[in-house]
Amino acid sequence: MLRSILLLPLIGLVTRSVAATPNISAIFGPSLSSGAQIFLPSQANYTEDVTQRWTTYDAPTYIGAIKPATVDDIQTIVTLAASNEIPFLATGGGHGATITYVNCTNGIEIDLSNFDTISINATANTMTVGGSVRFEDIIPPLYDAGKELPTGTAPCVGLVGATLGGGIGNLQGLHGLILDSLLSVELVTPSGDVVTASTTENADLFWAIRGAGANFGIVTSATYQIYEATNGGEVMSANFLFPGSANRSVWEIFESFDDTLPAALSLTAYAGFNQTTQEMELIVSAVYYGPKEEGVPYLASFTALNATETDLVMVAWPDLIDSMAFGADASACTTGSYLNVWGLGLAETNVDTYTTFFTELEAFAQAHPDYTGIFVVDRYSSEAAAAVPANSTSYGYGYRKINSHLLFENSYTNPSLDGVVNAFMRKSRAQFQRTSGFSEMEIYLNYAHGDEGPEVWYSPQHLPPLSQLKSQWDPDQLFSFNYPVPLA
């Protein structure tokens, strides 16, 4: 059975790389607070003490890590790193996957683990969190307060990091993208200053970070609008396991929802080749935020396919993630795997393209026994997201109308496969693009591979003003490893 899912990213930031290896203890230690910690890779517990990256594919390299204890510490680190020309990346959940990180070599990781506070104001319907808080941290207290906020489906992904790239998930049909719920942030800028950004304060910066945030600073805290829990926080979770031979019928059902998916319903398909059984498998996970008697009729077409295995339960929201895909997503939070990620956004479902790719994926996996990748289709309602004006945030113009988010999660242990995997992915992505319903490539930023370029990441409409703001706020391009915005 399939055992991995991705919901991508975190916060990422940078400076220039250097030839010599600096002594970071000597450079930073004297200026940091007593609560800050410096870690070197040579230390025995480095991997336990420092947040590790979800995938090692083209990962950045570090000469050490610093865990700041205060906002002043972060200001100090940014300022000293810049003056000493030391590259840096700030880490929240650790789910960064873009290949653009490869340019960050011999840098420092700014581990935000100490910024983990959560404060809920149920009366005002707001929640303020620290920069390292993850989805799994906020769901239980929100549920206990009778509230909810859109999240992704990998529990260990950083809330702020996912927000800055957009933030998709099961609740977006009701509440829009995660970034649509963002009210304000406290940010350490490239100059080392601390600023607040909202629609009323530094509004231009607030526009920019909602879609391209990793380019403009380190978010130390963020405030979100929260919502009354749908159906009292009780959710219907249904899973279907199909043999590979049923894939065309499954894609036809997905196509039938292209214009009719209810706001409270989401569908996710996971397809992959089981190297043990030498067979393709296909899981469909359906989530409905409402009573069982309302949700079950929407799944009649899947039920009629006579799945090999079926599971349908009502669960409390905090238990939802564990119930999805027969609980097969545990490895979504396993760090240190070699995962080569690609993605694409679709406006419509072309059954022939899906079926052809399914067959080609099977042949590719059979030809490469070390390959255990999966293909994920996230089908969320775009109703609430599309209702938000396209120019209100820097999230790609028109990308709010994406109906299906494709994620190609290529897992293998032998890096010599990089060339053939990338060639296969490039061809497959192009096939889907031709029948995507979009004239140009459109993609959820957190699912991008990194080779698409700024016009795809941010759209031709939003890139020019983003470049102007980049020139204003980060003219030295200190924050330019994570889907970099070019200067104007």
UniProtKB/TrEMBL annotation:
Signal peptide: 1-20
Keywords: FAD, Flavoprotein, Oxidoreductase, Signal
Domain spans labelled FAD-binding PCMH-type: 55-229
Listed GO MF terms: FAD binding; oxidoreductase activity
Keyword Signal: yes
Record has Signal as a keyword: yes
Pfam families: BBE, FAD_binding_4
Family in the record: Belongs to the oxygen-dependent FAD-linked oxidoreductase family.
Record's protein name: FAD-binding domain-containing protein
Organism: Aspergillus ellipticus CBS 707.79
Source species taxonomy: Eukaryota, Fungi, Dikarya, Ascomycota, Pezizomycotina
